[in-house]
Amino acid sequence: MKRCFVDQVGGRHWRALGAVLCVLAILLSGCGLGAPDQEPVTITFVYPEVDTAYYEPLAQQFNESHPYITVELEPRSWDMLQHVRTEEADVIAADAFVLYPLREQGDLLSLEPFVEQDPALDVADFYPGTLEVLSSEGEAWAIPAGVDVQVMYYSRELFDQNAIPYPQVGWTWDDFLNSALAVNDPDAGVYGYASPPGHFDALLFVYQHGGRIADDLQDPTRPTFDDPLTIEALDWYARLFHEYDVAPTDQEARKAFGSSRYAVYDGLRHGRVGTWMGDLSERGGLTWSVEWLVDWGMVSLPSESQSITNAAVEGYAISAETGHLDASWEWILFLSQQVTYRLMPPRRSLAESAAYEQQVGQAVATVATASMEHAVLLPPAVWVRFGGAMDIFGQAVDRIISDESTPQEAMHWVQQVAEAGMTGQ
């Protein structure tokens, strides 16, 4: 049974008060911020299970330098990570969209006192926007753990077979389309480009063309789905499916790659697609349940009137239920100084270091850092506020691809729905 509203609000206030008193105690003590607990402690660290091989040696290294702190690793699947209970963890590593609801419920501590006063944390070294994504009303509730940028993958084999040079950082829409056309062979079940389910790529193409879906992405006050440049971009996007025939519709993908709902992914994995968008963290199947069989390459997204990509931030947060605040902060501070693997380091000094290049390879490091220079990072609160309109946008793109609506008709429909939603009608 759910608690009544008064109980919920009261509980949050008590947790918030407890967190403030806990931090004040640290500030007023002789230990200072980030000082170790005097007695040996064990902290529980909940994180995505895909990163176990990364965190295991780090936990051992941390314990060697902090013998009074033992880090107990608690890996979770992506699904289970969304249901983590803060009483089960001292430190949580997760995507901003997983952490944000916990913050709103009062289940995470504010880390602002540490951010402001711990000299070991060089805030200026973080890429712009990464810390802000994990902050609310000027208070940081998590420290960036890594950044996942959208990139373009390609099949080296298909490019080699057609004697096409691999795409390079700085390529354009024309370069992209010419490459897709050169490797395209629908009769043989091979396509030059494939759009992932949900067609989120359409939104990135819109912004690359100079279109927009809101007056201000960081603080949207009104939708602008019917912007002429948005419609132009979607008209070009639709031609990839209907005029150039370089991208398969859902029905064509099932016919070419297999009848499952994951037909497009099967096509990508087996090298039947020339180019496709994906997360940096996906490379080679890192976050998939199966390894990619394709000889893949990676490049930043093509540009048109502007270069732009999307980026998601994962962070380290401290549970409001922790009894070991000092030790938890020491662990987070240690992790923030490490070179990541699945994700791009959120610190510029680490991302541009020889250590990161050695960790992931020169090609991956070059694309990751180049992509980050044009990345848009949106706080979870924006997506919560505008999420309903984005769902409608996805439905509209489906209508465009299935030839049920023109881009102008589809965006007019989304605009009306979005306006009604934002005004509460």
Structure commentary:
This protein is of the alpha/beta class and 425 residues long. It has two domains: 5-147 and 312-369, Periplasmic binding protein-like II (D-Maltodextrin-Binding Protein, domain 2); 149-310 and 380-423, D-Maltodextrin-Binding Protein, domain 2. Helices cover 44% and strands 15% of the residues. The chain contains 18 helices and eleven strands. Strands 1, 2, 3, 6, 7, 8, 9, 10 and 11 form a nine-stranded mixed sheet that branches. A two-stranded antiparallel sheet has the order 4-5. Strand 4 and strand 5 form a beta hairpin. Helix 17 packs antiparallel against helix 18 (407-423). The longest helix is centred in the N-terminal third of the chain and has 24 residues, at 5-28. The two termini are 31 Å apart.
How would you sum up this structure in a few lines?
The chain is α/β, with parallel strands linked by helices and 425 residues long. It is 44% helix and 15% strand. The protein has 2 domains: 5-147 and 312-369, Periplasmic binding protein-like II (D-Maltodextrin-Binding Protein, domain 2, 3-Layer(aba) Sandwich); 149-310 and 380-423, D-Maltodextrin-Binding Protein, domain 2 (3-Layer(aba) Sandwich).
Task: Name a few traits of the molecule.
alpha/beta; 425 residues; 18 helices; D-Maltodextrin-Binding Protein, domain 2; 44% helix; single chain
